[in-house]
Specification:
Structural class: mainly beta
Distance between the termini: 79 Å
Shape: elongated
Number of strands: 24
Strand content: over 45%
Length: about 325
């Protein structure tokens, strides 16, 4: 509860110690918070304080509210407090430190900056029948800055002691204005994502690349090259593997050209095609291969060669060409 009174020309008050019951737990304010308002046209001052629960604490600094003002926020604790923001069946754990500060003036100008650091993060999605899939990273750092030019975002993830993902991005203040940025992937191991694709019994390979980002918020564009090296995958319930898979994705704005080759059932498989995002998302790939030994459990084996054209759009899969058995 808030109690206060006028003391001369100034209003003084207190926010009493209290407890809030939220979906992510009970938050406790242990000490009273001073409130002060000098009068009309002046700033309301709220003393810095901390809300605590079993896994984290949230500490607003001194807050000045008015036509101009400033404020700050610090948070530290376990990321499990954010689980309520995730989809049903998801669980998040790891250490989080967050610092934000901002200010505004009477002319409508707003400045803000922040930094977050996460460590030992694990995101787990639980499925039916006791099954689950997890992905995580050792350390993540994000830095934010907002000014008249827009929102500046810097983000990096480390796994096994090395940087694997990086992002530098400027989001403009208006949606129709141009964005710009860069993204990098450095030997991202697909095996870390295998638990999220239960239809595959094997998912391996290393993805690297550098991208230049442009376009607008509604129509982002990417230019650059992504490569998959030494890929290996197999469908659940089928022992036939696609291995030694090397792919290149040449991104050219709103479309990409892909090419590569691998070994399927002992025979070479060659791939080439395009991925387009306009006027609709469309993937067109040609597949050519010779003498693939393909097993169909429990005891059927085929020797295949193919020359196929595969087109995938929303809700449609079209396959045409020749298969020699």
């Amino acid at each position: 509860a808030v109690k206060g009174s006028w003391q001369g020309q100034q209003w003084r008050g207190l926010l009493a110690p209290t407890r809030l019951q939220l979906p992510n737990g009970s938050w406790q304010l242990d000490e009273a918070v001073d409130l002060a308002w000098p009068g009309a046209g002046q700033q309301l001052s709220i003393e810095g304080h901390c809300w605590r629960q079993s896994q984290a604490q949230l500490c607003p600094g001194e807050l000045l509210l008015g036509r101009s003002g400033r404020g700050s926020l610090e948070m530290a604790g376990d990321m499990s407090v954010l689980t309520g923001l995730l989809s049903t069946g998801a669980k998040l754990s790891g250490d989080l430190q967050l610092m934000l500060e901002g200010s505004w003036d009477a002319e409508g100008g707003f400045l803000a900056s922040g930094r977050s650091e996460t460590r030992s993060v694990l995101l787990t999605q639980y499925h039916g029948e006791g099954e689950s899939a997890s992905v995580g990273w050792d350390r993540g750092v994000a830095e934010l800055k907002y000014d008249r030019s827009g929102l500046h975002v810097g983000w990096a993830l480390q796994r096994d002691g090395r940087k694997v993902l990086g992002l530098e991005l400027l989001l403009p203040p208006e949606r129709e204005q141009a964005l710009r940025g860069t993204a990098s992937l450095e030997q991202v191991q697909l095996s870390t994502l295998s638990a999220l694709v239960p239809s595959l019994s094997t998912l391996e390979g290393s993805v690297s690349g550098q991208l230049q980002l442009s376009g607008t918020v509604d129509k982002p564009l990417a230019h650059g090259l992504l490569t998959l090296s030494d890929g290996r995958l197999a469908m659940a319930g089928n022992p036939t593997e696609l291995e030694s898979l090397d792919l290149k994705f040449d991104l050219r704005g709103n479309w990409a050209e892909l090419s590569g080759r691998g070994i399927l059932g002992g025979g070479e498989l060659r791939l080439a095609g395009q991925l387009n995002s306009e006027p609709e998302l469309r993937l067109e790939v040609s597949l050519q291969g010779d003498e693939h030994s393909v097993l169909y459990p429990p005891s059927t084996g085929l020797l295949l060669s193919e020359d196929l054209r595969v087109v995938v759009t929303a809700g449609l899969l079209d396959i045409s060409g020749n298969i020699v058995v």
